[in-house]
Automatic annotation (TrEMBL):
Its main location: membrane. Belongs to the glypican family. This is Glypican-1. Coiled coil: none annotated. It comes from Melanocharis versteri (Fan-tailed berrypecker). The keyword Membrane applies. Keywords: Cell membrane, Disulfide bond, Glycoprotein, GPI-anchor, Heparan sulfate, Lipoprotein, Membrane, Proteoglycan, Secreted, Signal. The keyword Membrane applies. Cell surface proteoglycan.
Length: 551
């Protein structure tokens, strides 16, 4: 008869719900009530002491301080807080890239402005009517250069050729006022200009150097903006329902279990965040290629393409060209007569202006090479630090935002109770989450917004690769009109970073037109081909079709 009461007691103990710690009394819910109120929720209906947790749908169903309503509110709060963490981390990267763009843009625009001002200040006294009657030609040149740099759809070589053509026509008339020169005659003269070289080698030399410098400069500036825009768009991607549950369990379930002081296990946190940010991690490969490509172009800007010298001395090269024409006026005129026929003498007398303005012109340019060197060094340091942003984001969020416990802690929140966390940490990216123990991830349905941004990174890297070898591509707005999927192309040797070590060719750079869909680049030289325009377009169409199928 003594056995029955003892056995009955054991049965009662075994069937009682487990508590977070020892003790027969229900624990106070004061800490949870304080936290719940601090989050802006009403304390009406919040338990004073632990209650049975059979009603819970996310947290473990032991004794709890949370009602169903509290669990739902905490889940929504955890979702908004985690998304805020993502946006805050993204804003830091955006600020870095935007600051780099602003610094370089200010420097480059200042170079152009100083060159134009030096020209407008010096040329009236140097050339008199040769300048004053043709000031618009020079002003138009600088306007076209600025438009090109700002990514307008302008062919830079054609703009430079047009400048030299217009300048030659006007100067030839002013230098030969005794002749009656018709438009047809000027057309003939222009056709022979390449053969006669009235301005010497300056037009050809400036075209090669300026084209490469401008291509590199505008691609470099655009790269920072594209990187910042990608981060902004990706940071706004909403969490999935499965991720919201996992984040709630990570951040607020320990409070419901009366373990407010217990931090989440680090590896547990990593698995949750890696599962939630699986698609974002797939940006990493193309993101690293973009950072490497920007570093490679930065080396060109401060090295072989010598932006400071080329852009800052445009006015000096123009002055040199005009002097060449003045000094070789008779020889040039004779060659023109041979090719286009003699001219009739005009009734106007010869101007003495030309005689006053002859002579070798010497202009000075203030170098800002040191400022450029500092800009490039700062940019390369920041770009190097950002290479691993996407794959290091889970660790950063767990350590700095979620405040996870140390990796070796065996008294941390493991998702069920206080103890060790045994599962292994998953790899990075969508494909590696197939066995994630904390977040249910459908690896067959990649996020299309992020796939579109992966494509934007590929397109920008392609442009930078072309800029690195002196090839021009059309620039269009890359914000919203491209889509695609995949993230695995290798980075060509001639695109990424310092692997580009050969000196640039001095041949005239090719200009390739592309369709108006944003971001279609051209092939660059290297160990493997860059994506073609047709391939990129095909990828984008396939991705859009896949998106509809998945829906």
């Amino acid at each position: 008869m003594r056995v029955f009461p003892w056995g009955f007691w054991l049965l009662c103990v075994a069937s009682a719900p487990a508590r977070g710690d020892s003790g027969s009394k229900a624990r106070s819910c004061a800490e949870v009530r304080q936290l719940y109120g601090a989050k802006g929720f009403s304390l009406s209906g919040v338990p004073q002491a632990e209650i049975s947790g059979e009603h819970l749908r996310i947290c473990p169903q032991g004794y709890t301080c949370c009602t169903s309503e509290m669990e739902e509110n905490f889940a929504n709060k955890s979702r908004s807080e985690f998304e805020a963490m993502m946006k805050e981390a993204g804003r830091s990267v955006q600020a870095t890239l935007t600051a780099q763009h602003r610094s370089f843009d200010s420097y480059f625009q200042d170079l152009l402005n100083k060159s134009e001002k030096a020209l407008s200040d010096a040329f009236p006294s140097l050339y008199g009517e040769l300048y004053t009657q043709n000031a618009k030609v020079f002003k138009d040149l600088y306007s076209e250069l600025r438009r090109y740099y700002r990514s307008s759809n302008i062919n830079l070589e054609e703009a430079l050729n047009e400048f030299w053509t217009r300048l030659l026509e006007r100067l030839f008339k002013l230098l030969n006022p005794q002749y009656h020169i018709t438009d047809e005659y000027l057309d003939c003269m222009v056709k022979h200009a390449e053969q006669h070289k009235p301005f010497g080698e300056v037009p050809r030399d400036l075209k090669v150097k300026a084209t490469r410098a401008f291509i590199a400069a505008r691609s470099y500036a655009q790269g920072f903006l594209v990187g910042s825009d990608v981060v902004k768009k990706v940071s706004q991607v909403s969490l999935s329902h499965e991720c919201t549950r996992a984040i709630m369990k990570l951040m607020y379930c320990p409070h419901c279990r009366g373990m407010s002081s217990v931090k989440p296990c680090n590896n547990y946190c990593l698995n949750v965040v890696k599962g939630c940010l699986a698609n974002q991690a797939d940006l990493s490969t193309e993101w690293k290629y973009l950072m490497d490509s920007l570093i490679g172009v930065a080396d060109r800007i401060d090295g072989p393409y010598n932006v400071d010298t080329v852009i800052g001395t445009i006015h000096m090269r123009i002055a040199e060209a005009i002097s060449n024409l003045q000094e070789n006026k008779d020889s040039v005129t004779s060659k023109v007569f041979q090719g286009c026929g003699n001219l009739k003498i005009s009734t106007r007398g010869s101007s003495s202006e030309d005689k006053k303005r002859r002579g070798k012109v010497t202009l000075e340019a203030k170098s800002s090479a040191q400022a450029l060197e500092m800009l490039v060094l700062d940019a390369k340091g920041n770009l190097t630090a950002l290479k691993t942003y996407w794959i290091s984001l889970p660790s950063s969020l767990c350590s700095k935002k979620v405040m996870a416990s140390s990796a070796s802690d065996d008294k941390c929140w493991n998702g069920m109770t206080k103890g060790s966390y045994l599962p292994e940490v998953m790899g990075d990216g969508l494909a590696n989450q197939i066995n994630n123990p904390e977040v249910e991830v459908d690896i067959t349905k990649p996020d299309m917004t992020i796939r579109q941004q992966i494509m934007q990174l590929k397109i920008m890297t392609n442009r930078l690769g072309n800029a690195n070898i002196g090839n021009d591509v059309d620039f269009q707005d890359t914000s919203d009109d491209m889509s695609g999927s995949g993230s695995g192309d290798s980075c060509p040797d001639d695109v990424c970073g310092k692997r580009l070590s050969k000196s640039p060719s001095t041949r005239q750079p090719e200009t390739h037109a592309i369709p108006k869909q944003s971001g279609h680049g051209v092939h660059g030289a290297g160990s493997r081909s860059l994506p073609s325009a047709s391939l990129l377009l095909l990828l984008s169409v396939a991705a859009i079709a896949a998106q509809h199928l998945w829906r």
